[in-house]
Amino acid sequence: MAARSLSSILLKGVVGLPVARLTTLASGSFYRHGMQFSTTVPNDSDTHEDFKPTNKLESSGLSLKDIVEQDVKDNPVMIYMKGVPDLPRCGFSSLAVRVLNEYNVPLSARNILEDPELKNAVKTFSNWPTFPQIFIKGEFIGGSDIILNMHQTGELREKLKDIAANQEKPE
């Protein structure tokens, strides 16, 4: 009888907790905090050409290999991941972002789920088959397991210290 009362109390407590509102509707569309967000735009014939989105990768004239090289060169911390840092789409990508966020460094990212050709270009560039893939100061580091291990041993702090120092604002 006491066990039933306890479970009833616990169940009522759990039911009263707020529910996270993050529901995926379809590819590229999701709800968060009661608002709908979309990463894609429907092909609307009423939209003027000036306001239609463009694919910057396609219109840049650069090859995917060039884009990956430029990403890695131009961004002190670059992560190719499933999803984006604010909404990772796999546990390994989520883990990598959480570890890197501990160091207050600017994090640049590309979502490989949006472009299978980019995904293949990154694999070829790094000669590494899995994601996420993390590059720090132009050097391929590895995935979430390697970043986590480097974090635990202090090696990641050392590697990121000059990047993190550049982010600190003098008071």
Largest sheet: 4 strands, mixed
Termini separation: 61 Å
Helical coverage, percent range = 40-55%
Structural class: alpha+beta
| CATH class annotation of the domain at 64-166 | Alpha Beta
Count every helix, treating DSSP H or I runs of 4 or more residues as helices: 7
CATH architecture of the domain at 64-166: 3-Layer(aba) Sandwich
Uncertain regions spanning at least 5 consecutive residues: 9-34
Shape: globular
CATH H-level superfamily title of the domain at 64-166: Glutaredoxin
Query: What does the radius of gyration come to?
Result: 21 Å
Q: Classify the fold: give the CATH topology of the domain at 64-166.
A: Glutaredoxin
Number of strands: 9
Q: What fraction strand?
A: 15-25%
Mean pLDDT: 78
* Lateral strand order in the biggest sheet: 7-4-8-9
Q: What is the ordering of alpha helices and beta strands? A: HEEEHHEEEHEHEEHH
Characterization of the model:
This is Glutaredoxin domain-containing protein. InterPro entries: Glutaredoxin, GRX_PICOT-like, Monothiol_GRX-rel, Thioredoxin-like_sf. GO terms for molecular function: 2 iron, 2 sulfur cluster binding; metal ion binding. The longest helix is centred in the N-terminal third of the chain and has 14 residues. A hairpin with a 2-residue loop joins strand 8 and strand 9. Strands 7-4-8-9 form a 4-stranded mixed β-sheet, sandwiched between helices. The protein has a 3-stranded antiparallel β-sheet with strand order 1-2-3, with no helix packed on it. 43% of the residues lie in helices and 20% in strands. By secondary structure, it is α+β, with helices and mostly antiparallel strands. About 15% of the residues have low confidence. It is globular and about 55 Å long. The termini are far apart. The chain has a domain of 103 residues: Glutaredoxin, CATH 3.40.30.
